[in-house]
């Protein structure tokens, strides 16, 4: 008689093992990004000292994804809630997890002021170039010519402007001696984990603000198959250049 051997998945300790099946749409990049973040938290041994905040939008589905103290906020308000926690409890590693709408539209003013004030927290902005939860409308990051529910003929920069580039905006206003600002992509999860470790280390060591923009995928709203999805991601990586923009001293040895 054949015996079926079942093995539990090897999950980072910072992930909630009881969450069950992912709440994100099939193929969504959020699950990969969050698992990579959890692995970085584990490797830095920060689980017991971290508070995780998530925004409205697709990111709110992470409300029980992490095995961390977690708060789900009003739309665009994750950044001020998290720096409020950190100011009340100095030494806490605060993470604000949001989409491009929560960070660059309704929450832009909070992101700008947190960056200017060098709040000691990590802001993670997931950029999938559309408003995913509400059906795929144009977002601040929608690329020129990209078709969405509200740009059926493609985004026209003459009418709606060019896509917002969050990492460059933040890099222009931070204290370059204390902040860490970068753009990464879910096409390279090993590099993404190193990026998260640098960002978390910058916060944990009390140096200052960290901002990580992550290029992500949304095949359901993009209406793309596997090949088309990652071809679109390559196009995004050409539009939104991947790489570090601001790196303070002290992070050189983080791998």
| Largest sheet geometry | 7 strands, mixed
Kindly report how far apart the N and C termini lie. Answer: 47 Å
Quaternary assembly: single chain
At the fourth level of CATH, the homologous superfamily is: Thiamin diphosphate (ThDP)-binding fold, Pyr/PP domains
Sequence stretches where pLDDT stays below 50 over 5 or more residues: none
Task: Explain what this protein looks like in three dimensions.
This protein has 255 residues and is α/β, with parallel strands linked by helices. The protein has a single domain (30-134, 163-246), classed as Thiamin diphosphate (ThDP)-binding fold, Pyr/PP domains (Rossmann fold), CATH 3.40.50.970. Helices cover 33% and strands 15% of the residues. The chain contains 9 helices and 7 strands, in the order αββαβααβααβαβααβ. It has a 7-stranded mixed β-sheet with strand order 2-1-3-4-6-5-7, with helices on both faces. α1 packs across α7 (189-204). The termini are far apart.
Write a short abstract of this structure.
With 255 residues, the protein is α/β, with parallel strands linked by helices. The chain is built from 9 helices and 7 strands. The chain is globular, with a radius of gyration of 18 Å.
Write out key terms for the chains shown.
alpha/beta, Rossmann fold, seven-stranded mixed sheet, 9 helices
SSE layout and pairings?
Blueprint: H1 30-43, E1 50-54, E2 69-72, H2 78-88, E3 93-99, H3 100-104, H4 108-116, E4 122-127, H5 157-160, H6 166-171, E5 180-185, H7 189-204, E6 210-215, H8 219-222, H9 226-239, E7 243-246
Parallel strand pairs: 1-2, 1-3, 3-4, 4-6, 5-6
Antiparallel strand pairs: 5-7
Helix pairs in contact: 1-7
